[in-house]
Write a structure and sequence with these properties.
- Its cofactor is Zn(2+).
- This is 5-methyltetrahydropteroyltriglutamate--homocysteine S-methyltransferase.
- Pathway: Amino-acid biosynthesis; L-methionine biosynthesis via de novo pathway; L-methionine from L-homocysteine (MetE route): step 1/1.
- By secondary structure, this protein is α/β, with parallel strands linked by helices.
- It has 25 helices and 22 strands.
- The strands form six sheets. It has an eight-stranded parallel β-sheet. The protein has a five-stranded parallel β-sheet with strand order 17-19-20-21-22.
Length: about 700
Amino acid sequence: MASHIVGYPRMGPKRELKFALEAFWDGKSSAEELQKVSADLRSSIWKQMSEVGIKYIPSNTFSYYDQVLDTTAMLGAVPDRYSWSGGEIGFDTYFSMARGNASVPAMEMTKWFDTNYHYIVPELGPNTKFSYASHKAVTEYKEAKALGVDTVPVLIGPVTYLLFSKPAKGVEKSFCTLSLLESILPIYKEVIAELKAAGATWIQLDEPTLVKDLDSKQLDAFSKAYSELESSFSGLNVVVETYFADLPAEAYKTLTSLNGVTGFGFDLVRGTNTIEHIKSSFPAGKYLFAGVVDGRNIWANDLAASLTILQALEPVVGKDKLVVSTSCSLMHTAVDLVNETKLDDEIKSWLAFAAQKVVEVNALAKALTGTKDEAFFSSNAAALASRRSSPRVTNEEVQKAATALKGSDHRRATPVSARLSAQQKNLNLPILPTTTIGSFPQTVELRRVRREYKANKISEENYIAAIKEEISKVVKLQEELDIDVLVHGEPERNDMVEYFGEQLSGFAFTANGWVQSYGSRCVKPPIIYGDVSRPKPMTVFWSKMAQSMTSRPMKGMLTGPVTILNWSFVRNDQPRFQTCYQIALAIKKEVEDLEAGGIQVIQIDEAALREGLPLRKSEHAFYLDWAVHSFRITNCGIKDTTQIHTHMCYSNFNDIIQSIIDMDADVITIENSRSDEKLLSVFRDGVKYGAGIGPGVYDIHSPPNPLH
């Protein structure tokens, strides 16, 4: 029985690639040094999977920024503003597209499906010229082969690439990117031919858009594309991989009817309904890559349950055609539990990071062949039982409080128009007030102080003095710049979700559980393992201190419950909305304490509200109902004169604007610098939006200064 990994984390167990990228961008290291770090990481990953016994090991899942940008480079689809003159795309052009440069802005960045991972959105038009401009897929396949590892090169499929593109600036918004299918397929044929010539026997084409609600024209594009590629597939085994959700019936039928395809990969963790499709109509003689090991969470797999699913599928597809796989790329989870020193043994026994999931995949594959590792399965069962019975998981008081929320929509009693009037009288702000989203750059010295305080190397008194000095600098700077609503800069925080999670019960934290968000940006998601509550105030001390330094309004800065949920590894033993309601109640207490402490403007960030939207429209209403309700819970009991802000970024929320209005915030701030103002246009085109809005004009993730 074979085993397969869809993809693997890129950053390295201790963020080696992050530091190499940043050193290169800062001019402190050469391209050769960056390439060596990346080659060492790839070599380590391939060898690790090979030693475990994985048969189908992926290559070309490594990226210097993101895999969609890699595909744009492969196709030579470089926007004119980057002045690319042809040939193999180098780092200068590649990173200019991702980050911008001194003269031109970056391409738009948005969320990859419903994850916290981001991709660079391709900009296409009827005059886009395509050429084979990046040989990365072939180069990395040869690199692995030279190490004695035969890999499965992975490409973003042609239809998914086009569906995740947008019309370039100056192109009619109605332009259909799918009309370019015939233009990009010749490039795919060249890549496939080179991979075959290099010795590849399998390739993987990722077409995850098949899990979305597609119309007949979009589904027909898959049939057309793979019919055109069929002759190129001759002599190759081709697996088309999907992930993140169930496939609708028509999409499943389209996929399993594609010409020239050897096997199909499905997410059977988030797509359990797909199992019924497989049982009723799986094509004879094809391979099934069964994604039973969760690639998006860190909980140990229920090996017995997964084995039962696999055993039920085995007679349907055939023993020699069933491949045990991850549900999606492991890039969405942390790298290796071996690197963890902060987690206690009990919680650690409940978890599996990427390295452990590779072992789980192989253990399941062996069990199907009759060589079950009884000790490994027994240890897994014991860990699952420990988690179910642990008193650390359940807090009856919290459960009761969350249950009591039923029957109220927790809406502020006064309409937003009246509240804004009361707030203006209270705050006396100008017609166009200015503010910033919150955090200021963190210096090396500040990070050192925070690190030493956590390690008990400096006293609490000295730590408070250092943070107070930093806040004072930030307040003075904003006053000099004549900013109207100030922030304290958040010098006491390394990461906004981690900061709050560390002060809430039911959370655990890792030492090296880093996950890539985009480029060199890594986050260390908290682990929500139990019921959530707030033992004591979290930000009130610092906010009151900052307010005492100025006569201008000082914003209290909080992360909203939906964002904390969506940017954490969430417990999988109860519905997500129940956990979100618990977090909302904890944030509600903080909001009320901030107001009581004299803070009159409170920002509750919900940057990830859109991110959690299910991929299928039939599931949108339920999610938006509890997500928006959770936000309203946080501030339903405060005075009309207290102004509530929220913030959203790097998401397309055109289709959920009514839910955003329903959040009933007084002011919303949005990303507006990398999206051609399309997010701002949502609020003025046919929508009755009566609250305040703050369009962000400066992209902190790009080098160019918008004032130039």
